[in-house]
Amino acid sequence: MEYPRTILFILISLALSIVAALISAIILEAYRRRFNHGHIEAPAIFEDPNSLKRVPCPSIFDPAEKYMSLIVPAFNEEYRLRGALEETINYLQQRAAKDKSFSYEVIIIDDGSVDGTKGVAFNFVRKYSVENVRVILLGRNHGKGEAIRKGMLHSRGELLLMLDADGATKITDLEKLENQIHAVAVVKKEGSRDPSIRISDIPITAFGSRAHLKEKALATRKWYRNFLMKGFHLVVLLTAGPGIRDTQCGFKMFTRSAARKLFTNIRLKSNSNCSSMI
């Protein structure tokens, strides 16, 4: 009986050590970046391929001009980007044709790609105009987190959706997030004394989740990856509370107010920004 208890004690000690190390790393990184303003070193620009002019991007602090902005970070996505954009824009155009009040923009952030990603993106700008499709060039690779942040801070929508360039999530699923945000907004408006308040003024977020695929994923991952995943979920539970089942799904929607509060404060440039925003 002593042997199993010893193994259990070792595993628990290892898990606690990992959790403590992760928390310490997060605290140290947050402290280091608190006074580090290097994140503003790459001013965002977008190009109009027809005029070949580089124009300063709008700001998240400006009033919304569109109903929805879709933020697509891309790094060396020459072969996957085209199909994802075609599916996305076809859906947006069909919806705009049915609902004249629906307006949109797709913002592709080229995070220093060295393949033909930029050319693919600009082909869509030429086809659908710079009013509906825009490309932000970061010049060099900063990381997915910084690409998302730049797109959010220079969007024009009341609702802002981040999604991956590989089309991993069905674009129609955005309606699920949108409906959840509207449901919360209705409650918030009822409790507000300002009748003119808009959905973009209420800080609300809705996150996509792949937790329903958890059992299948657990069956295909190595045991040590599952162990590390459980440790990370414990950190999320301790820092963000219960109810967050998937931090890494790249399908998240924000109202303009929520995006302004979140992305003006996020500093992480890697995929870790999905966790930091939570």
UniProtKB/TrEMBL annotation:
This is dolichyl-phosphate beta-glucosyltransferase. Gene3D superfamilies: Spore Coat Polysaccharide Biosynthesis Protein SpsA, Chain A (3.90.550.10). Coiled coil: none annotated. Pfam families: Glycos_transf_2. Belongs to the glycosyltransferase 2 family. Residues 69-183 form the Glycosyltransferase 2-like domain. It catalyses: a di-trans,poly-cis-dolichyl phosphate + UDP-alpha-D-glucose = a di-trans,poly-cis-dolichyl beta-D-glucosyl phosphate + UDP. It comes from Cucurbita maxima (Pumpkin). It is a single-pass membrane protein. GO terms for cellular component: endoplasmic reticulum membrane.
